[in-house]
Structures are given as structure tokens and as C-alpha cells.
Amino acid sequence: MTEQIDLNRIPRHIAIIMDGNGRWAAERGKPRSFGHQAGVDAVRRITAACTRLGVKFLTLYTFSTENWNRPADEVSALMGLVLSSLEDEIFMKNNVRFRVIGDIKRLPEDVQKKLQETMEHTAQNTAMTMVVALSYSARWEIVEAMRVTVREAITLSEDGNCEDVVQKLTEEAFCNHLETRFMPDPDLLIRTGGELRISNFLLWQIAYAELYFCDTYWPDFKEQDLQRAIVSYQRRQRRFGKTEAQVEQSE
């Protein structure tokens, strides 16, 4: 599979919905926490693989806002895994910078502290940025960005003039307040586990992303699976509203 990849056309930003941990564990007669632990091992593999391929941003959907509705013992186990996985030296070994997006204030204080420490510790790493979406919801993000954008527009307008406010409500101003404002939009979105939906993940940012779904559960997702997704991506023509002829002419 490696020989099929064009290293000059590697997606700059890959986002992954890591689905299937619980079902993977259930098929083995194990508790869901066992699947989540195996999922951490997959994160290590794929992070290293993305770094080797030259991917610049890897965003992982780790814990959604809706996941707070799961059983308390599972949520507690997931938070524990977040803490233990952040101890992993994969960041320094692979020169990877760590960032986090989401409603972080809802997380336990020890998790918040460890997240901040890891971001500071890896801030100078340059090979790739790994972004973890924790307590994240795209709808939450959009609403929060909208509130800040409107408040800013009112503050900058002349005497709160309605028309002046409206003129300041631009797409650029809105994007400047998204959680993901520090990185480009995803080129490729991968979802493992066989489900064919987005599940409230980066809804604004994936407007022009290529989507790739596979049946492989996340704990079984290996470098060859990542390569297969990238080959699929590279076989597609990204037109961004243009015609096929226009794209071919520009190339």
C-alpha cells in the first residue's frame, strides 16, 4: 500500500472519529474500558504513522459532549485514560505538538491541569500537531463562536448601530472564534467502526473535506488502514465548486 501513496499529495490535516472501542471489547467478552485502552494503543500507532508520512495536523474525536451521558464508571475510566495517555512520551519521541479543543471547563481539574502541562511541554515541537477533541460538540462550538462574534461586532460598531453590526458579522470574524482557529480545515475525515455519520464533529470545518468510512474498529486500525484511506483521498479530485475541466487546467 505504501508504494501507492504520492508523498507530494499527503493531506495536510486528517481528522478521525475513533469509533468501535466498545464493540471491539464486547466481541471479546471484555468491559468497554478494555476497548478504550486498546484504542489508546491505536492512537500511538496512527500518530507515529502520520508523522512519518508528513501529515501536519491530526485531530482525534476523543470524548464528545454527548458522551457525558454514558455510565459514570465508563466516563471515569475514560478520564483516567486521558491522564495516563498524556504521560506517553510519543509527543517528544515524534516531535509532536499537543493541543486540545472542547468545553474543557467541564473536565475534572486534574485532567485540565495535565492537558495544560502537556500543551506547554510540547509547545516547541514542530513535526506535527495532534489535536484532541475532549468534551467537544460542533454545535456547542458554533453557538459559542457566534456569541463571541456578535458581542465583538456590537463592541466595535458605532453606538450599536444594527446595520454596522451586521456588516461586521463576516465569515472571517466567525472563524477567528472557532476552537480550531489555529489550524487549517481538515482535508480528510476518517470514521472507523462501520457507522456512516459525522456525529456532531467539526461540522463547520469539514465543508470541503473528503470523507472516508471503514468497518474496522478503532483498536484494529493500523498504519495500512491509514494508508488505504490516504490512497482513496488521493484518487479523488477536489474541485471546491469548480468544474473538472477548470481543476485540470489549473493543475
From TrEMBL:
Annotated Mg(2+) binding sites: 19, 210
PROSITE patterns documented for this protein: UPP_SYNTHASE
Active site, UniProt feature: 19, 67
Cofactor: Mg(2+)
Entries under Pfam families matching the protein: Prenyltransf
Residues that bind substrate: 20-24, 32, 36, 64-66, 68, 70, 191, 197-199
Gene3D superfamilies, A to Z: Decaprenyl diphosphate synthase-like (3.40.1180.10)
Keywords: Magnesium, Metal-binding, Transferase
CDD domains: Cis_IPPS (cd00475)
GO biological process terms on file: polyprenol biosynthetic process
Bound cofactor: record note: Binds 2 magnesium ions per subunit.
Enzyme class: transferase
One GO MF term attached to the UniProt entry: ditrans,polycis-polyprenyl diphosphate synthase [(2E,6E)-farnesyl diphosphate specific] activity
EC nos: 2.5.1.-
Entry superkingdom: Bacteria
HAMAP family assigned: ISPT (MF_01139)
Family: Belongs to the UPP synthase family.
Biological role stated in the UniProt entry: Catalyzes the condensation of isopentenyl diphosphate (IPP) with allylic pyrophosphates generating different type of terpenoids.
Self-association state and partner proteins as the record states: Homodimer.
UniProt-recorded name of the protein: Isoprenyl transferase
Protein's gene: uppS
